[in-house]
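Ticket #4471: structure export looks truncated?
Reporter: QA, pipeline team
Priority: medium

Steps to reproduce: submit the single chain below to the structure queue and open the exported record.
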Amino acid sequence: MKKEILIKSFIAALFSAITISALTLLTYKTQYGIFLIASFGSSMVLLYGYPESPFAQPKNIFFGHLLTSIVGVLFVIFVPLPIYIMIPLAVGIGVGLMILFNVTHPPAGGNPIIVIMGSVSLDYLINPIISGSIIILTFGVILNRLILKKKYPI
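Actual output as written to the record:
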């Protein structure tokens, strides 16, 4: 294997573990609520493995997660359909809206599934979506820009 790939792989693994550790500690060791969702793990792949990707840029991470989660919450509150119909409709609408508003973040495509299966409320948008995304982006900027000296965000 090339040395560059080994280094990139190690750094992505390390920074992902650091970022998810912070969210996990906040979730399980404080009384501030939930900061961690499964799709944030997928966000790490882009943020630390491919920070130059348009999908890894802060507006995409933040608004992609927020937009698809809003879609999921709106379906939970206002769409009285069976879950096996709600989930695909919500995912489709969420993906379509991310593309329409130019905030595509592929990991966020799973948020409507998480939201609908968990039957979450509007509070979920604040914690974990908004607060978790801000924490992820803070770590992303610090680790990519200040430590690795990469141009992030682009």
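Status: closed, not a bug. The export was complete when the record was re-opened. Leaving a note from the reviewer for reference: Residues 3-147 form one domain.
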